[in-house]
Amino acid sequence: MELKQFDFAIIGAGAAGLQLALALSNDVFFSEKTILIIDKDDKTKNDKTWCFWEEGNGQWDHIVSNTWQKCLFADKDGAIELSLKPHFYKKIKSIDFYNYAIEQLNKKDTVTFLIEDVTNVIEDANGITIISNKNKYYAKQCFDSRVSSDFFSKHNYPTLKQHFEGWLIEFDEAVLNDNTFTIMDYRANHNNTTSFIYVLPHSKKQALVEFTGFTKQIFKNEIYAQTIDKYIKKYISKKPYKIIDKEAGIIPMSTFPFEKANTNKLTKIGTAGGWVRASSGYSFKNCERFIAKIIENLKEGKTPSKNFVNKKHRLFDGVLLEVLSNDNSFGLTVFSDLYRKNKLPLLLKFLDGTTNFAEDLKIMNSVDKMRFTKAMLRVKSLKQN
Q: Quick one: which of 23, 44, 151, 186 could link to 75 by a disulfide (CB 3.0–4.6 Å)?
């Protein structure tokens, strides 16, 4: 039986896969190109919360549920309020993104969405054969959000896990300041690790309270619950609350060269493509930048992943990960220095990778230069496998 063929196949209907599908299907250059989206999940659950910062209006504002321009950072010296202006910090519920993206894609005759589990992909000179638990398909170009097995083998690249559990809680009374979110609160630190509480107030009664760690190993399940409950009662309110929903996850933070899995026909996307900023764990807005590059490369007849790697970003991220891998307790000092000694818009610009050399120096001068210099030398001298 002849395989059903597509111009583009996208494996995984997450933030990266659906953003890519929307970008391709909305561009007149690709108006006659067929697109296969294949995912083992039907995307009918609110399984994530995505946040990002940007100036002014953005393309996702119609599904943004909350925005803030002020935040709190807290450590052993107390809490400070910081302004994000001219940036807005924006929150999107994954279900709102899924519903919007799938609704738009369902209007396109060129798009096929299948709920199947991909078990293998095989590349030949002309394209990719995609094998699922139900069928086989063929595509000229394949974009794959599954993390390569090579990442899970032994390697020397600095790597941590961003792991978290979040509770959507609700009080009977108005006890929250919904104009300000908490970006990091190290007063909830666990066992002197790089771990903190993150709070997104949705209203004066409702908030997402999340406990996050940047460590090599994840914590025992009960640690997340104990830390969140203790934090709520100590720093938010002693009044009774109820848990409406929970979310949890593990995101690899690494300078591992995910792009080595890319070929002329196969491109890793999302976490699998190294699109998560290894120094922060943020990824949703990064997808826009990588997808714009994919679109540009495709139009110019180039390999989709050409010019993906930003060597400066990778070096800075690797240095931070090396510092925290070598001494995870030092995270409190690192982030205290970054947030207390820099204006937040400059720090956000640095995380976006849009700082100039003078601004990079200002950020680097705000942290322990000796420790970071030694880490930089270690990163540069690592024998990469």
A: 186
**What's the confidence (pLDDT) of residue 155?**
85
The rounded Cα 245 to chain-centroid distance in angstroms is 21
CATH architecture of 4-153+255-299: 3-Layer(bba) Sandwich (3.50)
Q: What is the pLDDT of residue 382?
A: 66
- Pair of tokens at residue 178: 């919904």
Q: Which fold has domain 159-253?
A: D-Amino Acid Oxidase; Chain A, domain 2 (3.30.9)
The conformational region for residue 61 under phi > 0 = left, psi -120 to 50 = alpha, else beta, is: alpha
The structure tokens listed for 343 are: 């204006």
| CA angle 129–132–135, rounded 5-degree value | 80
Measured in whole angstroms, how far is the alpha carbon of residue 298 from the centre of its chain?
A: 24
Which tokens belong to 75? Answer: 């450590």
| pLDDT of the residue at 384 | 44
* pTM over 0.90, yes/no: yes
Q: How far apart are CA 247 and CA 168, in angstroms?
A: 8
DSSP per position, 217-239:
SPPPHHHHHHHHHHHIIIII-SS
* Ranges of each domain in the chain: 4-153+255-299, 159-253, 311-381
Please choose, from the candidates 350, 380, 379, the residue with its C-alpha nearest in 3D space to the C-alpha of residue 365: 350
Q: In the block, which residue shows the tokens 């294949």?
A: 38
Listed as ranges, residues in the chain with pLDDT below 50 are 383-385
Q: Are 186 and 332 in contact (CB under 8 A)?
A: yes
Q: Say if residue 201 is preceded by a cis peptide, omega within 30 of 0.
A: no
d(CA 312, CA 324): 19
Residues with Cβ < 8 Å from 70, sequence gap 6 or more?
81, 82, 83, 84, 179, 180, 181
Cα pseudo-dihedral 334, 353, 64, 340, rounded to 10: 30
The pLDDT of residue 263 is 96
Q: What is the pLDDT of residue 262?
A: 97
Contact 109, 90 (CB under 8 A): no
3-state secondary structure of 327: coil
Type of residue numbered 165: E
As a whole number of angstroms, the distance between CA 64 and CA 365 comes to: 35
Instruction: Give the integer Cα–Cα distance in Å for 150 and 256.
Output: 10
Q: Residue 280 has what pLDDT?
A: 82
Distance of CA 273 to the CA centre of its chain: 12
